[in-house]
Amino acid sequence: MSKSEQKPNKDVEKESSGQEEEGWGNKTQFLLACIGLAVGLGNVWRFPYLLQSNGGGAFLIPYFIMLAVEGLPMMYVEMAIGQYFRGGSILSWQKIHPSLKGLGICCVIISSFLCIYYVMVIAWVLYYLFVSLSSNPPYTGCDYTDDACCQYDKTLYYWFAVVLKATPDMSDSGDGPAWQLVVLLTLAWVVTYLCVFQGVKSTGKAAYFAATFPYICLIILFFRGVTLPGAGDGIAALFKPDFGMLLTPKVWIDAATQIFFSLSLGFGALVAFASFMPYKNNITRDSIVVACINCGTSVFAGICIYAILGYRAHVTGRSVDEKVFGTGLTFIAITEAVGSMAGTAFFAFVFFFMLFNLGVSSQFGTLAGMVTPLYNDLKLFGNARKELCVALIAIIFLLIGLVFTPGNGEYILGLFNNYPVTMPLLVVSIVESIAAGWIFGIENFDKAIRDMTGNPCPVYFKICIKYVSPLLMVVLLIWLLVESFMVDPTYIAFTNCNPDDAILYPNETVSFTVEKVHPTWARVVGGFMVFFCVVPVAVFGVMKRLTLDEIKDCIHGRRVYQIGETSNKNGTIVDSPVTYVASNEDQVVIPQETEEGIYANESAQ
Cβ–Cβ contacts within 10 Å for residue 111, how many? Predict the structure, then answer.
């Protein structure tokens, strides 16, 4: 049997040259940027709710199991692929096989949807941050209105009626964009741009503050929270175990989805960040550190939040078991509790400034991960300066984001949050695990890890990447698909209360909101967004599909890549030539160069 002929992929080397122009200032910048990307608003306003409503302390069992079998392996895959192939999400996956180019494009599209709406949440946080600078924040009273409903629930009324100017229906935009929100949305984009415009150089510097200051705020809130009356009841409600809940499938599904989304898997940002690291870097340790810090932060944030909610229950008489999360937790429940503390202005500022930094660090991380493949991989902007390209993207996204500023803006934002960044992310991560474990091959992946770190890929990770993680994510995807067909999507609409009820029955439950089913047009728009996110995987999967022989080689693990880095004449590290030299006893596969590189193969007897 003759030896297979190996040829470097000249197209890949040419495409990758731009990647060498950037780099992290040091490893600390990389780790802080990854932590800032992963640790976001969901750690503060979603995890505590899931923990308290899914069995308390018992929920930590499925949560950490899912971290071990789903979160860690997939974070490891994304970071390792980025560091090894030295490209953004498009180029890195395409180097494994041309059919995977659509996978990277999907990552870019999903990240785009997230960037468009996530910055609106930052604008809302800025609104509260600025009004909290007053010694007597307006949400603590009703001096600005004569509406009796405000007296019943000050913070809820302020959120819906003043900040959002919410309408009673998703199809009703009210008086159009609120100018305050337009200004704050613009300011949020300016801050994001300043963190990203020079690529990882500016992102790394911004991460020093944006990723670390939230922990200072959490520590302040922790010590203040645990010293408040009722704090013990709140923390007890959070962790009180109900092991019977572990028999409920939804608890395990919630644990899996929280791990998946909180680690920012599937957006392509981790791939892009890792691509700027030195080739010889212990990416195994980095991925474990980032994942563990993220999950530890969620638990710590939960303690801080529920200590404050316990105090709220003590002061207002509301039940600490009241289920609140998302904007309801941040802008209503916590705001109400902070508003009744001594030193309201200071602690409100600390809380909202923490949320601002959490939001910004996740936002600029996601945007940087989206810009990298567009600018470096696809060369979409030609030779234009990156600063101008990022500015163009920011302006386009800002204009689209104006749809969130009218009275129905929060309802529209819910469409962006529920459709393009749920099931499409699962589809992306399933394909990623198949690409790494089967198409690239787990043995080639192991060799790449050995070459980069000097140590083999842990056997546990190899088993999870190839078998456990994709199977688990397929089950999760099927569950979400079935649920989407069986349960009508709904949203909470603000209808305000009946003023007579608020006056005559001040101690009774007065309703401000009503749950409504999404209108038909909203479902169509949501379905289109899902389709738009996943269709590139199918399109490129068909156009550049694996041949039958290649599929057989994937199944039997016979695809072999030339592993290792090479240097050009100037000694600068460039991409490893990706070669396909799979063979068996009967044939030798010789790589042939085409416009697609070295992936088109021809058998020689």
Answer: 28
* CA pair distance 457, 443, nearest whole angstrom: 9
Please answer whether residues 143 and 162 qualify as being in contact, where contact means their C-beta atoms are separated by less than 8 angstroms.
Answer: no
Pairwise CA distance, residues 281 & 434, whole Å: 24
Q: How many residues does the chain have?
A: 605
Query: pTM (2 decimals)?
Result: 0.88
Is 167 strand, coil or helix? coil
pLDDT band at 62 (very low <50, low <70, confident <90, very high): very high
Distances (CA, A) of 520 to 44, 72, 494, 526, 529: 32, 39, 20, 10, 14
Question: Under DSSP, is residue 7 helix (H, G, I), strand (E, B) or coil?
Answer: coil
Three-state SS letters, 434-460: HHHHHHCCHHHHHHHHHHHHCCCCCHH
**Eight-class DSSP state of 583:** B
Which amino acid would we find at residue 445?
F
Residue 563 CA, distance from chain mean position:
31
Sign of the CA dihedral running 594, 434, 112, 78: negative
Largest Cα–Cα distance of the chain, in whole Å?
93
State the first-to-last Cα distance of the chain, in angstroms, to the nearest integer. 9
| Least confident stretch, 131-140, 256-265, 306-315, 571-580 | 571-580
Bridging pattern class, strands 588-591 and 601-604: antiparallel
User: How far apart are the C-alpha atoms of 120 and 184, rounded to whole Å?
Assistant: 8
